[in-house]
Amino acid sequence: MPQTVGAQSIQFAEAPYLLSSASIVGTKEGEGPLGKLFDVVGADDKFGEDTWEEAESTLQKEAASLALGKADLKKEDVRYIFGGDLLGQNIATTFGLMELNIPLFGLYGACSTAGESLSLAAMAVAAGYGENVLAVTSSHFASAEKQFRFPLEYANQRPLSATWTVTGSGAFVLGTRRGSVRVTGITTGKVVDYGIKDSMNMGAAMAPAACDTIYQNLQDFGRRPQDYDKIITGDLGKVGQGILIDLLKQKGYDISAVHMDCGIEIYDSETQNTNAGGSGCGCSAVTLSAYILPKLRQGTYKRVLFVPTGALLSTVSFNEGQSVPGIAHGVVIEHAG
Amino acid sequence: MPQTVGAQSIQFAEAPYLLSSASIVGTKEGEGPLGKLFDVVGADDKFGEDTWEEAESTLQKEAASLALGKADLKKEDVRYIFGGDLLGQNIATTFGLMELNIPLFGLYGACSTAGESLSLAAMAVAAGYGENVLAVTSSHFASAEKQFRFPLEYANQRPLSATWTVTGSGAFVLGTRRGSVRVTGITTGKVVDYGIKDSMNMGAAMAPAACDTIYQNLQDFGRRPQDYDKIITGDLGKVGQGILIDLLKQKGYDISAVHMDCGIEIYDSETQNTNAGGSGCGCSAVTLSAYILPKLRQGTYKRVLFVPTGALLSTVSFNEGQSVPGIAHGVVIEHAG
């Protein structure tokens, strides 16, 4: 088993290339600090559809098509899609990716799904199971609020620890063809439960899982935090970021100098009323595509650890008094020189 | 790419072994034709828990532990779990498998998830990503009715085309250690939509997807139906079975002599009031574990094509007038001599 390293990681013998990516977002994301970097900013968050769920499906379809076009590939060139979203029974993915007519592995890892899909796509390409594979994830503010919280019309107040679900989809083409960025390794997360029961404080619920995966990655690869230009979590937000840094300090690692959180980067919380930050499968995916990958392509970053974080709950589990466990999947992405 | 065959399949160069499996079911499944074959039949469908969802989680936890025990493995020996269920945000899986403390890839493929989890587990082992990997899926009649249909107390009438969700979980250990059964190939399904809108006729919704995957499997591997001792769909039931056989005849293949459907096998619909048959992620998983694998171990079956079938809908997609597309994932399982 030459490729497995340590307890939970893989270092790919033949690291797959991240050939292209695309990001499509809603109006609020377009008005945020990264607004000019996204490939497409929708003129209205329904994206020409009748329902929020169809709008989210359209995001996935368009992001996937755009990523394929950038890699100069047709859909027939893609062997598998690894895709997922936050909605019950993954309906945004089903209806979004159906027309592509590509074999589909449906995934659910809450907001960690961007990491899960990149991990499995990299595993598939590195094993020779396909020359080109797509990883696609999405979230939509309005479909997620309807799924997890309250009808928008109810105008429920949101605590300061709450995050704002990103409207967006990120799609990534991984393949064997030479490019300037590679996925060199992964660290797959376990479900970690600290007993948090507040679904409006998902940063606190997910920080222990992020800590667990980052700690394990550093151990498995024998690296220090400064061996990464950035250690990038998905959507811990400001509350979760503080907890993560503290938890890792207790385990002997100080990541404060290299930590970045996509949920903090994507909005200006002072002016955009997004409280602790952004969240959702789309948050880390579009930030990776629009903001982080260009720096890896140019070599500004040589190596990053990308760690999307997920809060594992449903309205049923929440209403039945269950805790909100977390999960985080780590993906090592490097400039390929 | 020596392992990929045809348009959608993999033939494993080093086929992983299916080392052990376990099946745990509810009382109704225990009273059915396969009742004596299951490892555990619960005395009551709450399995000692307070809620149906916790009961389903317990099914997964116990099935996974039992499968590990049969393979003489500890949880520390398992590199990954590929797991999923039917509930929104996969909560049965999250809370069921959390205590195992094993890196988790959460999956959603509706009732096809047993095929999806076996496919990805086999891909991981064959690629050298882990010596032992678990594939676990479940469904529970009461948690599924609550999720997709009506409260049980409402005692809604069910049309003859409806299926009965199986209460059960099947767990499978795949690994590199020599055993008597191997997963030799897979054919991964696409989302197939014939525009069926009746969620009480899921057999009709899933049959085109089963047809697509079986046809592709026969094409990719250059096989005829009789090259399999059985071609086994997950939960088409009696309505879906007829449609599948007709659709494949139109494409030049007659599978009527070798077709089996887990949903038809698991209940006696005459006496058990289950209408078209059983369904759910658990249906194909427990039937594979209790009924099909023993025949493969003994060599009664030399080679089967196992094709769990999923209907991709949620209450939201249904209420918004969407169709019910299907997906089916094929797994080739062989006696290893």
Explain what you see.
2 copies of one chain form a homodimer. Chain A is of the alpha/beta class and 337 residues long. Chain A has 2 domains: 17-175, 3-Layer(aba) Sandwich (Peroxisomal Thiolase, Chain A, domain 1); 181-335, Peroxisomal Thiolase, Chain A, domain 1. The first copy, chain A, has helices spanning 27-30, 52-70, 91-97, 113-126, 141-148, 202-221, 237-250, 262-265, 269-272, 281-298, 315-319, and strands at residues 4-5, 9-11, 17-25, 40-41, 80-84, 104-107, 132-139, 164-165, 168-175, 181-187, 230-233, 259-261, 278-279, 303-307, 309-311, 326-328, 330-335. In chain A, the strands form 4 sheets. A 7-stranded mixed β-sheet of chain A has the order 1-2-10-17-14-11-12. Chain A has a 6-stranded mixed β-sheet with strand order 4-3-9-7-5-6, with helices on both faces. In chain A, α7 links the parallel β11 (230-233) and β12 (259-261). The model of chain A has no long low-confidence stretch (mean pLDDT 95). Chains A and B meet through α3, β6, α4 and α11 of A and α3, β6, α4 and α11 of B.
Sequence stretches where pLDDT stays below 50 over 5 or more residues of chain A: none
User: Helical proportion of chain A?
Assistant: 25-40%
CATH topology value of the largest domain in chain A: Peroxisomal Thiolase, Chain A, domain 1
What is the alpha-carbon Rg of chain A in Å?
18 Å
For the record, the CATH class of the largest domain in chain A is: Alpha Beta
Measured by DSSP, the beta-strand proportion of chain A falls in 15-25%
Element-by-element helix/strand order of chain A: EEEHEHEHEHEHEEEHEHEHHEHEEHEE
Tally of contiguous helical segments of chain A: 11
Q: Which structural category fits the helices and strands of chain A?
A: alpha/beta
Largest contact between chains: A-B, 60 and 60 residues
Question: Can you count the beta strands of chain A?
Answer: 17
Number of domains of chain A: 2
Average pLDDT metric of chain A: 95
Main sheet specs of chain A: 7 strands, mixed
Measured between the Cα atoms of the first and last residue of chain A, the distance is 28 Å
Instruction: Classify the oligomer.
Output: homodimer
CATH architecture term of the largest domain in chain A: 3-Layer(aba) Sandwich
CATH superfamily of the largest domain in chain A, please?
A: Stage V sporulation protein AD
Strand arrangement across the biggest beta sheet of chain A: 1-2-10-17-14-11-12
Which of globular, elongated, flat, extended, rod-shaped describes the shape of chain A?
A: globular
